[in-house]
């Protein structure tokens, strides 16, 4: 009986290993917003500023936000990505804004960065899994805020 169960469990594991892996979405998040670029930029700032993000750079077509990662997440990120001599890790979010008629297409991506002692910057993309879903949810909130009539 035990031999049959072991054989069955082994066969089940082999079958599970042979199943194709589910494709996870990864890469930048893209959303179309029915509002002008200025209104979308304002909604992005209103959404990210209360979370401690500051504007690193702004052009006509791009906004870059960042914030220092502190607490347990910061210690863990620094241990995994840097060393005792590196700067504190930063969460950096990039938003590309493309005017498309009356709409604005927003392409959002984000990453964790750590600047090492010699100036090298280690980067880890956050454009997959739960972090990608969080970006998509945040952009959906930005879309709702930007499209809201005044």
List key phrases describing it.
alpha+beta, 31% strand, 4 helices, 150 residues, globular, TATA-Binding Protein, 6-stranded antiparallel sheet
Description:
This protein is of the alpha+beta class and 150 residues long. It has a single domain, classed as TATA-Binding Protein (2-Layer Sandwich), CATH 3.30.310. 39% of the residues lie in helices and 31% in strands. Strands 1, 2, 3, 4, 5 and 6 form a 6-stranded antiparallel sheet that branches. Helix 2 crosses helix 4. The radius of gyration is 21 Å and the shape is globular. The N and C termini lie far apart (72 Å).
Count of domains: 1
Oligomer: single chain
Range of helix content: 25-40%
CATH topology label: TATA-Binding Protein
Q: Catalogue the unreliable spans.
A: 7-13
Write the layout of secondary structure elements.
Elements: H1 2-18, E1 29-33, H2 37-48, E2 54-58, E3 62-68, H3 71-81, E4 90-100, E5 103-115, E6 121-125, H4 129-147
Antiparallel strand pairs: 1-5, 2-3, 3-4, 4-5, 5-6
Compact description:
This protein has helices at residues 2-18, 37-48, 71-81, 129-147; strands at 29-33, 54-58, 62-68, 90-100, 103-115, 121-125.
